[in-house]
Amino acid sequence: MHLETVAVLSEDGLTHNGLLYNAGSGFTVLHVHGKCGSYYENAFVAILAEVYASAGYNLMAVNNRGTGCIVEAYRHGVLEYIGGSVEAFEGCLADIGGATKYLSERGHRVVLQGHSAGCEKIALYCSERGGVEGVILLSPGDSYALQSRYIFPETLPAQLVRLRGEDRGDSVGDPLELAAPREYGVATVEKCYRIPIVRTALITWLDSPYIKMFHEKEWWQTVDVPAFAYVGAKDDLQVAGVSAMERCLRSRFSHLAFCSPTYGDHHLSKAEVEVGTSVVDWLRGLDL
């Protein structure tokens, strides 16, 4: 395996940097990081890449417009700001679409791999676009429940109505002005923290049905592509429990392999090799 730096163009012209862990094969796992993450931040990515490469699979990890909070980026050479604090949720379609095009033009078949909020992005992509061999969900979180706990006693529907009502109807506001700390964050039994975000970006996340991946079954059409899911038993961002998450994921994806090491956490700590090996066994079963 050797490393290659890559610069991938999104469908709407943003340049995203990343790494291709190249095992020399024509099959690549495309890693989609979570909110405010990056292609290099999570140590487990490089470990998974080693495990995949040993079995003959490449891994490509690329930034998307949700990288960092507010960072510099370039669209056709012109500076603009992107990041998890300002991205519109549906923009992930252009990011993933650009990355899959980059790989397909080089003759690679693709499986999407999402981590944390990246799972919501690849679920949207599979539902809207398809065209991939399968999906790998690493530590999918119940964003709806985490946000509901954070803003309690206000409800998410009430928050969305209020935020929309605060639109001043002008264009003079600062597009990078952050919403109040109370508006967006994560709350579990063990932790509670703010996630910086601008109001317009928050509305797109709250308005997306994919924040409700583990709620409101009526809107969801079962994704008919092979799927692998990892939910760590020690993931401190899980609120429903492993069994409940597995049941829900099985109802969302028609062909699901499920992995839940008893010691695994949100970042796969100490479970990287076990999870990677399970993914490889699943990939081999896809007859790629």
Would you write up a description of this structure?
This protein is α/β, with parallel strands linked by helices and 288 residues long. It has a single domain (2-142, 219-284), classed as Rossmann fold (3-Layer(aba) Sandwich), CATH 3.40.50.1820. Helix content is 31%, strand content 24%. The protein has helices spanning 43-54, 92-104, 118-128, 143-151, 156-165, 199-207, 242-252, 272-284, and strands at residues 2-9, 15-22, 27-32, 58-62, 71-75, 78-82, 109-115, 134-138, 185-187, 192-194, 223-230, 253-259. The protein has an eight-stranded mixed sheet with strand order 1-2-4-3-7-8-11-12, sandwiched between helices. Strand 9 and strand 10 (192-194) form a beta hairpin. Helix 1 (43-54) packs across helix 8, helix 2 (92-104) crosses helix 3 and helix 5 (156-165) packs across helix 6. The protein starts with a strand and ends with a helix.
Task: Provide a short characterization of the protein structure.
The chain has 288 residues and is of the alpha/beta class.
What percent strand?
15-25%
> In terms of per-residue confidence, which ranges show pLDDT below 50 for 5 or more consecutive residues?
none
Number of helices, where a helix is a run of at least 4 consecutive DSSP H or I residues? 8
The rounded Rg comes to: 18 Å
Distance between the termini: 19 Å
The 3D shape can be described as: globular
What percent of residues adopt helix (DSSP H or I)? 25-40%
CATH class: Alpha Beta
